[in-house]
Design goal:
With about 260 residues, the protein is mainly alpha-helical. Helices cover about 75% and strands about 0% of the residues. It has two domains: about 110 residues; about 130 residues. The chain is flat and about 60 Å long.
């Protein structure tokens, strides 16, 4: 049953992205994107609730489950923060990423139908897992905003100022401010996850994912400090945000 919720969420994400792009081609705003993504969120919650019952814990025990949780986190932050970005267009850019994360989980042999119950869970361990992946949702949305900035920058340099995409993209300054706020939010949540990871009981050979998360945090911190102290052009800041997020996905190899 949990798989059907995930399939429905993936189909709705595909509809949100494709329909949004088709509407943009006609120089119109996709006003239904937020409703499609709201449907994605409801289906994701259904999946996570059922999967959590099957696991007896937060469903973050495999790469596929983490991928779905990350898609949920991205959708959550989109619905909460989307108005800052002109909500419909951010959804058009976010929906394909949600589709990719969930599509990966639906690949053969990724999600077992009868997952093993988790034993000896701790509050610190659950907090570490949940807050870390939740932080990645904010960082993923920041990367989406970075892609939007790069698209806008490209259109401006080409002097292509008449298409529907340009008309509905938010102003450059507003986009960069929102991007930075998302990065600070992601780093704050990741900080909580790292602290919980340091406090949770685990074997000596299980420190890899905590150190990997700390490495991700440090990379983002360096970029933010450099931006504040020396300054970074908007294009480099957006590009750095996208590259760091893609590279940081490697942390899940330590799960």
């Amino acid at each position: 049953m949990d798989r059907w919720f995930l399939i429905a969420a993936t189909i709705l994400a595909a509809i949100a992205g494709v329909r949004g792009l088709l509407v943009l081609r006609h120089d119109e705003r996709s006003r239904w994107t937020v409703y499609w993504m709201g449907g994605v969120m409801l289906c994701q919650i259904g999946y996570l609730l059922l999967r959590g019952e099957m696991r007896g814990a937060c469903p973050l025990r495999s790469i596929a489950e983490i991928s779905v949780f990350l898609a949920w986190s991205l959708t959550l932050f989109y619905l909460l923060i989307g108005p800052v970005y002109r909500i419909s267009l951010l959804g058009v850019f976010s929906a394909p990423l949600v589709f990719i994360f969930q599509g990966f989980a639906l690949l053969p042999n990724q999600l077992v139908s009868d997952p093993i119950k988790v034993q000896n869970t701790t509050a610190w361990g659950e907090t570490h897992s949940a807050m870390s992946v939740l932080a990645y949702g904010a960082l993923a949305l920041a990367a989406v905003a970075g892609v939007m900035f790069l698209v806008l920058d490209h259109l401006l340099k080409k002097h292509d100022l008449t298409g529907g995409l340009f008309n509905f993209l938010p102003p450059v300054r507003e986009l960069l401010v929102s991007l930075e706020r998302l990065l600070w939010l992601g780093m704050f949540l990741l900080s909580i996850g790292i602290i919980a990871g340091l406090l949770m009981p685990h074997e000596d050979d299980a420190w890899g994912h905590v150190y990997a998360a700390l490495g991700v945090w440090l990379c983002y911190a360096v970029m933010m400090v450099v931006k504040r102290v020396r300054g970074i052009t908007g294009r480099k800041f957006a590009l750095g945000t996208v590259i760091l997020f893609v590279l940081s996905l490697g942390v899940f190899a330590f799960v």
